């Protein structure tokens, strides 16, 4: 199950995900909002929505994973409540994130090759600069300006977290800094998680989102 980061308002909901979920068809996708424990149905009121459109970035590269971002448009509106709140876009493309701690959230494996939990988990990870990431064990040219690296030691996203959000807490809001994209294993030394750098796509996101629905 993917944790999908919500960006907009109750009027015209769109969900931001990775683009490399290419085999997914909109008729097969259901988005569950407000869920915490996937093994129960009565714990917290959640809602399910079908998809009316998938908007993939036209420059997505299946070899490099550049531009690994897409939007899902929900078929019906969603009313926000205590369990379902929007995640805001970055306020600016020029804000320096390196050295900040962020939170990655999802239902992915708790360790490499481990089991999938029924309850959503989160882990705090440090964000690396582009030069720091290129100095790791990845081939330097593999890490592009459209990517962001985060993680240290055992603190990392894992299989099943792909498409999920990397969040930064700012005041009373959360902003989405990255989308879980790719990596080598989970929590391996020298291989931090690699995320789509959302700030690089503000113009693309705003072009594809209704201005009245933006949360920044």
UniProtKB/TrEMBL annotation:
Any one Gene Ontology BP term: proteolysis
Cited SMART domains: Tryp_SPc
Enzyme class: hydrolase
Residues annotated as domain Peptidase S1: 15-210
Coiled coil segments of this chain: none
Main location: endoplasmic reticulum
Family annotation (InterPro entries): Peptidase_S1_PA, Peptidase_S1_PA_chymotrypsin, Peptidase_S1A, Serine_Proteases_S1, Trypsin_dom, TRYPSIN_SER
EC number(s) given by UniProt: 3.4.21.69
CDD domains found in the cross-reference section: Tryp_SPc
PROSITE patterns per UniProt: TRYPSIN_DOM (PS50240), TRYPSIN_SER (PS00135)
Functional note: Protein C is a vitamin K-dependent serine protease that regulates blood coagulation by inactivating factors Va and VIIIa in the presence of calcium ions and phospholipids. Exerts a protective effect on the endothelial cell barrier function.
Descriptive protein name: Vitamin K-dependent protein C
Originating organism: Acanthoscelides obtectus (Bean weevil)
């Amino acid at each position: 199950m993917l944790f999908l980061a919500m960006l907009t308002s109750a009027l015209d909901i769109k969900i931001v995900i990775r683009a490399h979920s290419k085999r997914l068809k909109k008729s097969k996708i259901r988005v569950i909002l407000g869920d915490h424990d996937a093994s129960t149905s009565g714990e917290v009121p959640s809602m399910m929505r079908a998809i009316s459109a998938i908007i993939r970035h036209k420059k997505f590269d299946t070899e490099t994973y550049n531009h690994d971002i897409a939007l899902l448009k929900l078929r019906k509106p969603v009313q926000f409540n205590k369990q379902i709140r929007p995640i805001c876009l970055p306020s600016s493309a020029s804000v320096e994130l390196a050295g900040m701690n962020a939170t990655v959230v999802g239902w992915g494996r708790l360790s490499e090759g481990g089991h999938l939990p029924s309850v959503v988990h989160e882990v705090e990870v440090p964000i690396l600069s582009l030069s720091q990431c290129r100095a790791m064990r990845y081939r330097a040219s593999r890490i592009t300006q459209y990517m962001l690296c985060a993680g240290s030691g055992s603190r990392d996203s894992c299989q099943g977290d792909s498409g999920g959000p990397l969040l930064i807490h700012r005041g009373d809001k959360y902003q989405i800094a990255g989308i879980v994209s790719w990596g080598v294993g989970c929590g391996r030394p020298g291989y931090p998680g690699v995320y789509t750098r959302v700030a690089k796509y503000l113009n693309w996101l705003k072009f594809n989102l209704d201005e009245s629905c933006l949360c920044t």
